[in-house]
Amino acid sequence: MIDLKLGRMSPAESERLRAFDGEHVWHPYAPMPATSPAELVVEASGVRLTLADGTELIDGMSSWWAAIHGYRNPVLDAAVTAQLGKMAHVMFGGLTHPAAIGLAERLVALTPEPLTKVFFADSGSVAVEVAIKMALQYWRAQGRPERHRLLTLRGGYHGDTFGDMAVCDPVNGMHQLFSDVLARHVFAPSPPLGYLAEPDEAYLKELSALADAHAHELAGIIVEPVVQGAGGMRFYAPEYLRALRDLADEHGVPLILDEIATGFGRTGELWGCDHAELAPDIMCVGKALTGGYMTMAATLCTERVATTLTSGEGGALMHGPTFMANPLAASVASASIDLLLSRDWRAEVDAIEAILTARLEGAADLPGVADARVLGAIGVIEAEEPVDTRAVQELVMDHGVWLRPFGKLVYAMPPYVCTEDETGHIADALYAVAESLGA
């Protein structure tokens, strides 16, 4: 039983639930049965998670980068409640509803100007699948089915479904087990590390040569703008993104930008592509779209992509999720966008960046640390060797913080509404991890 007043659960019930979870509930990138127990969360409010024993942790992950406004935000709660009083869901085939239309209006107004067509998906992975499908159908509609490969960058991550896995890093990514059954795309080396680094002319020439060599079969170029997320948390200079835009124009292929992790202000600009002052032909958004409340994503494209695609065989984009444009998700997404724009989100992100930068100063020089870097509301400690996930989590929990490391990376993406003190706690936890690596 849960003590509602204290937000705690009895030790016996907590143990029972965690035992069942470990034996029967599969978690992301985890074995079955589990080799280490998951922490049992019974409540989330503001930027804090409450565990079954009453422990409170500052969520330095924004629930995998999505809960930018924190938890139980009254504005977002009200949006879901109001929509629930009208309808929770209705099929989108042949029907539409005000929540979807209102969200589409906001996305068209908020994203780069050429993006005027909106396809709603039910997850970020599906949004990328749709983007890939758009590029392939775009060329099939023109009688060029041989243009079926995508140019992308090593170090990237775009999702866990099969189309997405094929454009993730094929060597150092998370999907090597499936490499023999995935589509074969064209991979350029990872861009040189460093948002402020001067462009490497040799690298730019290599990109150009690769695009030239495969121009006859390229359907598009797909990348994460400025920040490569789960593939390595790497930051790269906007000039490389501009070079990819130029190559897409030169070869007449769509530029697809995966803004699922970078969108809605995370990097310090509203969209990652804003750092390079350019627009894509196809763009994927998700994660923070609903403020972390519900699963939803969207793929936007230009008029040219949409009209060309639908002029060909099939006469339609061949995709249609059951829960496409779910009214609850669409309503809270609109409320989340309005809430973001009603605040000085840029100042919030700048404040997080300043605190992370100051508190992590010197971390890169510690033994066992390969690099420490910050961009926008993203702070990263990269170890020289893979970290012990459980040991790191126990360490940061001792600091009152929740982080989820992977591979060699321990990173934070705090909710934008964190106070200076809360962001400082997150930064201190990251620094403590850096100090522990050489112990």
Topology:
Elements: E1 2-3, E2 8-9, H1 11-24, E3 41-45, E4 48-51, E5 56-59, H2 62-65, H3 74-84, H4 98-110, E6 115-121, H5 124-140, E7 149-153, H6 162-165, E8 186-188, H7 201-213, E9 218-223, E10 227-228, E11 234-235, H8 238-251, E12 255-258, E13 282-285, E14 297-302, H9 303-310, H10 327-342, H11 345-359, E15 369-375, E16 378-383, H12 389-398, E17 401-402, E18 409-412, H13 420-436
Parallel strand pairs: 5-17, 7-8, 7-9, 9-12, 12-13
Antiparallel strand pairs: 1-2, 3-4, 4-5, 6-14, 10-11, 13-14, 15-16, 16-18
Radius of gyration: 22 Å
Q: Provide the residue-averaged pLDDT.
A: 94
What would you call the structural class?
alpha/beta
Query: In angstroms, what separates the terminal alpha carbons?
Result: 41 Å
Q: Which term fits the overall shape?
A: globular
Reported for the largest beta sheet, the result is: 7 strands, mixed
Q: Care to count the β-strands? A: 18
Number of helices: 13
Uncertain runs are none
Widest β-sheet, arrangement of strands: 6-14-13-12-9-7-8
**Could you tell me the strand content as a percent range?**
15-25%
Relative helix content: 25-40%
